[in-house]
Amino acid sequence: MHAEPVVVFLHGVGTGDPDRAWMHALSASLTRIGYPARDPHQVIAPLFAHALKGADDKASMPAVTVKAPTGAAARQNRREYERRTAAIEFRIGHHHGGDGNPVAERTVAVAMESPWFKQADNYLHDSNIRSQVLHRILSQLPRSGEMVIIAHSLGSVIAADLIRRLDPEVKVAAVITIGSPLASGVFNVDKIRQLLEEPPPNLGWWVNFWNPFDPVTARRGLSSVLPWLLDFTVQTPFGLHVHDATSYLTVEAVAEAIGFATFGSRSRELAVRESGVDIPLDTAETLSLLALRYNHLLGRRLDGETLDRFSGALRQVQAVTVARLVERNAAAGRGTPELIARLQFDFSDPGTVAPEPLPSRHMDKEEALVPLVVLATANTIDPFEIAIKKDTKQAALSELTAEMGLGSQLGNEVFSAIKSAQDALAARGTINWIKWAALGVGATAIVVATGGLALAAGAGLVGAAAITSALAAFGPGGMIGGLLTAGALATAGGGGIAFGLASPATSAETLELFVEQQLVLAALRGRLDLDQDPTVWANFVAIEAEARRQYERMDEFSDASAESLKELKRKIRALERAIAHIRSLGLQPTAEAEADASAG
Prior knowledge:
The protein has a six-stranded parallel sheet, sandwiched between helices. It is about 50% helix and about 5% strand. The chain contains 25 helices and six strands. The model is unreliable at about 270-275, about 430-440 and about 450-460 (pLDDT under 50).
């Protein structure tokens, strides 16, 4: 059985808590949330309060034994660290670093001049005292194995100073700091913040807990100076003891971080996932499941560094997506379908493999058209951005459509329609696939610019109302929101969209992305002999008319070189090409087709 790491507690100024009140508070918190109490024999709490007051003997500074990696090793170290950090954030909650406060910063600087903080001042400015303290602590630490460092107040500064001086055989599973003043410039001892610009290679993860009412923290976390660590705000009892270590250690989130670092996941003995029920998938679940399956099929076709980065991103995206769906269902009193529930895993355990979604269920072509175009155009690993070759994406989508009982050729047709649409609009042979994959960003911009009017569902479109309804529950952000937003825009109609897309608040690039998606769907419906959506033509005509109206209104008084006029010209040009492309395919509504024939 793997040995539990040793816990090291580094105290702040004062007596050093020789009675270990901190440990009693921590043990009570751990047992309250389901972890075992900490074994006293597995705890090291060096007392160095006396050394902080002065030192008669001379001692050289302990050597730096942990060197910062460089080149490819540095990038790999940072990537692995980010994976572990994402896992602990997923477990505890959302990072919050605060915004600081000049008055609070000044208060810390003034406090350092008081007798109460004399010990801290000694550590910062007397190199002999500093070296004595570090030697005293190092002499009590193991020479190998794992440790978890809990550091309070000045102890967090010492921890930052110490971590690079540990024996090379020691692995620091986690650093948990509480009530830390390290964000204040006063505590940048020996430029420690610059030396820790990147996470040390011997560190698993570092989380810092701070209370906005704790004056020592200067009303901000440590990520303001060490951007790679996680900050969490907590509330400790207000009053004289707001800064006490015992106050911080009674907070459940702090105990959870320490418990997980020392004992691992509480779910090791439990089934991680919720038992699913055999109920139909709704729109959000269908899109999410298709996207996750598509991502796993993409991952099979990647290798090297791209695969490494993509796998890490997908693992996090899957955990967050499934958690959001389960939480949404629980809040609505709805069960979670088995196909979704089975995808849960303990994300906080880096060794747990994310379950692969089962092959997607059969859909008819009309039902599948919007979801497939959404997958091909949206960023399915949002918020991460990884460029993947078009051929790789096309092969993955073709495998997906084959699994769905639609034939692999449909996946090829989707990408062929994308190329046709972009060629028609850009009048050039090269396609910017990264730009195309940013449709979700452009779609969100349309939602903001139109105040949501762009999401008015077009009449008669399969799934349009369901998509907009699901979007209301998730919002436009994240993978789920991005998929739903792209789907909503694919089915959008109504009078508000013309004004919103022609408005200066919406960029020309955003409009082009929207128009391209509409052209793709129109082309696919034509190739598959499906009924056309009449709102596509109506949207293009209305948006072009509104853009021309805006141009004529602004052209009279604006400079000829004004950026707003250039943007409007670009919009009008894109719409002219889109309308011409639909005519060239013979997909315009019947009345317009007859008029074109008569004119010809």
